[in-house]
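New to this. Explain these C-alpha cells.
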Amino acid sequence: MDLSKLTIAQARKDLDAKKYSALDLTNAYLEQIRAKDKDIHAYLEVWEDSAREEAKKADELIAAGKSLPLTGIPLAIKDNILIEGRIASAASKILENYHASYDSTVIKKLKAQAPVFLGRANMDEFAMGSSTENSAYGPSKNPHDITRVPGGSSGGSAAAVAGDLALAALGSDTGGSIRQPAALTGIVGLKTTYGSVSRFGLIAMGSSLDQIGPLTKSVEDAKILFDAICGYDRYDSTSLPEQDVPAKKPNVIGVPRGFLKEGVNPDVLEHFEKTLMALKAKGYEVRDIELPNLSYGLAVYYIVMPAEVSTNLARLDGIRYGLSVDAPTIKEVYEKSRGQGFGPETRRRIILGTFVLSSGYADAYYRKAKAVRELIRADFAKAFESVDVVVTPTTTSPAFTFGSKSDPLSMYLEDIFTVPVNLAGVPAISVPMGVVERDGKQLPVGFQIIAPQRAEETLFTIGKDIEQA
C-alpha cells in the first residue's frame, strides 16, 4: 500500500474488499513512525500494543460485515483531547503525568466506529502558538523540510498526516490552529462551526473560541471525520442543538481585497489568484467585498483569548491535580508549581489575560474588544447576504524556519487571516493550493474558505472543486 496517497475513503474500500487487514494497515503506520518520527517528532507517545489490539477488533467487525466509515482507520489524537486512562498533558510539564479519567465526547463518538488510535500528537503548550516551538517536549518538524515548522498549535497532528505517520488526525483550532498547520504541511484542515462539535473533554484554552476538527489528506476525508464527531452533546453547554440545514449549491465567492494587502508574499498571492481563476472556470462568480472591521481581528483576539486563558488555567494551581512543588506556604506552592510547570508563552498569555481583566483595565481593553468582536461577526453576517463564502490565503507565507519568529508579535501575525473566523464562530477549511520555493525546497501553501454557520457542506463542495481543478 502507498501510504503517501492513501485516504480514509480508499482505505475503507480496501479494508472492506480484504485487500489488506486493519492490522496490516496499522503495522505499516507503526513502521513509518519508527522509521521517520525520530526526525519529525509528530508524536509524544505511540500506543503500539493497544493500536494492534484495536486493529484486530476492527478486523473482526469487518469480517462480520459490521464496518463503519472509520473502522480500522489509524488516527493521531492531539494531546489536549482526553482519552480515558491515557496521559493528556497538553504538551505541558504541569500536566506531564495527568491521566484522563474519562473520554472526551469526540473520542466516545470515534470509539463507536472502532478506529485505531496510534498515539498522542505533539502541540504547542496548551495550544498557545503557531509553530509547536512552545511544546515543553520539543518542536515537531515539517515533513517537507525539517528545518521548518509544521505550524501550530496542532503541528504534531498535521506533521503526522503530512508525513504519512497517520491516515488522519484530530486537532483543535482556537485562532487557526488546525488551518495554519494544514496549510504549511500541504493537507486539509477543517475548523468547524462553534458548537457543532462538542468541547467536552478538550483541555480548554479559549472557551469561546476553541473547536475540535479534522486534519486529513483530502476534503472527502475531512467530511468523513466531521460527520463522525459532530452533533449535540448535553455535557457541553455551548453545543448547538440538532438542526437540518438545507444544502444549496454555492455560486458566489467573496474576496476581501483590502484585507489581502496585509503582507502576503507575492508568490502566495499568485497561487491564490490562480485558484480563484480555476474556480471561475468551474462556473463560480468571484466578487470583491468589504469586511471593514477584519483588520482589528488580531488585536481583538489577543485580548479576548489571553483573558480566557488566564481564567481557564487558574485551575492549575499545584493543589488539585497536575504538577505540585512542595513549599512551606500555599502561596509558594502556587508560585513554584506554576513557575516550573508553565512555559514562557503560557506565562506571557496568563499575565496579559490577567491584566486585561483586572480592575481599571477591563473597560479599557476587554469590554472594548468584545464590542469589536461583535462588529466582526456583523461584517461576516452582512457579507454572507450577498456571497456564499469568503476566501483568503490561509497564511501570508509558507512554513518558516525554526527560531525566525522569536519576537512574539511576528509570531502572532501568522494568525492574521485565521483568527477572525474563530471570533465570528463560523466554519472554515484550508485546502492546498500549490507550492512555492524557498531555499531550494517546494513548500505548500493553503487556500482558506469561510462559510456561514453550519455551512460545512458548502466548504466541502468548493474544497472538492479546488482539489479537482
About this structure: Residues 362-383 form the longest helix (22 residues). DSSP finds 15 helices and eleven strands in the chain. Residues 8-229 form a domain with the Amidase signature (AS) enzymes fold (CATH 3.90.1300.10).
